[in-house]
Amino acid sequence: MGENWFHREFLNPRRLVFNLFFYGVQLFLFAYGWYSQETNKKLAALNGLKWSVWTSRGAGLVLAFDGGMILVPMLRNIIRVVRPRLAWLFPADENIWFHRQVAYSMAFWAMVHTTAHYVNFFNVERTQVRAERALDIHYTQAGGITGHFMLLIMVLMYTTAHHKVRNQCFEAFWYTHHLAFFFMIGLYTHATGCFVRDSTNPDYIKTFPFYSTEHCLGYESWRFTIWPGIIYFGERIWREIRARRATRLSKVLVHPSGAMELRIVKPTFKYVAGQWLFIQVPDVSGWQWHPFTITSAPEDPYVSVHIRQVGDWTQALGERVGASPSVVAAMTQDAMKGKEKDDSLYGTRGNFVELDPARTTRPLPVVRIDGPYGAPAEDVFNVEVAVLVGAGIGVTPFASILKHIWYRQRKGNVGSLRRVEFFWVCRDAPSFGWFQSLLQEVEAAQADPNFLRINIYLTQKINEDMLWNIAVNDAGAEYDPLTLLRSRTMFGRPDWKSIYGRMRDAIETGQYLPGTNAQLKTRVGTYFCGPSVLAKAVKEACDATTTSNINFAFAKEHF
Amino acid sequence: MGNLIWHEWSRYVSLTATVYTIWASFWGILYRKFFWDFVGGTLRAPGGLQPANNVAVFIDIIVKAPIVQILSMLLGFAIVALEYPAPFLKGTALYRSLVVRIVTLLLQAFLAILYYQGTNGAIWSLVAVIGYARAIALGETMEEAKENRGRGGKA
User: What are the TM regions of this chain, as residue ranges (chain A) (predicted)?
Assistant: First the structure.
């Protein structure tokens, strides 16, 4: 990583604006909280505690802000709705990143707030400004109890959310993160102990919120921070209701390369190409929701996902539907060796096998799906040239998008889209056999040879046998020997700078988009899904190639 | 489902608890108070809580001289050095020992619970101890790092 921290945080205009705004708001709130406490005549007795109470009140106000913001990026359904309208304003796809930034801030201000309060209560006990012990405030009053509990919950949530733990055992992260429910309850009730007051004793009343605001002079921040919590809770309930709507697993197809395709029929499920969903199979686990990219196009009568049996959940699912890992593993091996290649007539790879539910003793399991959730690739029809880059398993969203483009093409309704460049960078293409068959269909259906170009880059090392094999089979053959597509497979890593450079030159000379005036602004949208190292390389190439007339935009999808 | 490596998780808890304890011990030196002084103590205004006579030894080592806080801070730095780990501890048998961690964390919890600011640090240290105990019960070990054989530049 050549760039340092300063470069990343301050010399990138968008990031600079975010930093100034986000941390500026926090510093302002801290200053305001400090000032409003220090100058409040009613709280003169409390102000006898000096700087520690000013600090705790200032940090408390920032924590209220953070506590309200922490749930905002998790309102997935609302983000999905507002995303198309507000994509210019904030990167809606970076919601998890923002969630983390709020969490880091929260940990910092929690440290400030807690430290200050430890001094406060120490001095309350020493000076007896109120006739109570520090212990009473810490462990018998609402503020102290909820505070200590929130800290403990934070320790558990932050440590299990570490990316290493999350990758090892997603469940540990997933279940522990639901402590957020208790955390939020603690946050909303943190001030109910009426610590900030101008009376000797807390002024409790019989009606909600059970303390009188005449003498309890806190910020009443729960009135604001509770809304994201209520909306989030509502969203979770809504997700549950939506997931319970009639859903039927209609077919399970096992592709020669070992991927299972689940075809699910759910009439109420509306989505656009490139989105993803959560799937739950109660027979495998009653609580877990797993994210998968939708691989069918919205025009298809079903929703499909392709699942490779790599984790224990996916393997258990395979076992359940009768495509046990051993069966699929054998198929994968065969596909890797190219055994199924049946060159007799059309040179197509072996077909998929439909699992017949009548043959197996158990009926297909019940499935529930939740979604859809957003992804940048929805915007594909707003640009003239779409560059779709999929790396490895990251190619899945493009299955849906390519299918969708194909359907739209047939209807003659592709918006401003003139050309599609599809790049697929992967180590071993044969293991994605199912995707190849899809590509074959799409490629074969192209009337205009220039509309869709498929570029496949194979990055694995090739041994001598394979080299000869390719050399002999490739010469003069109509289809590429590896992928069985008309497009030739390329070897090694793509050189993004030269690819984009050539594209720019071709657009400028008018060869690329015939009929387009060079004076017109051309938008080239790149949609990427894959590892972040590659994302960076592609993004840099995009930025370097952009000229005044040709805008190379970049969007990345997250999982 | 999933395979949580307990000692890796415990490490994060342990580091959090220890950093908290170091910070707490620093404030404990500035604002000295024996956490358990309420046992048998009398509340006086002004003057605050007057501890009972039979805990005078703790008052000596916590309030009169912040010995416990200083010990706690030193132990905290030692634990951070062990957990992070410091370069000179990396790869040693000490670094790979889960039992050493449990013992040091228990000691930290014991020291931290004595002074006013240390309670959370003590509780979290115990959480880390539970995690490490679970790791040992499951037979987890910290593997000796593989030697980078055949790396260029070294004979």
Answer: 16-35, 55-75, 139-160, 172-191
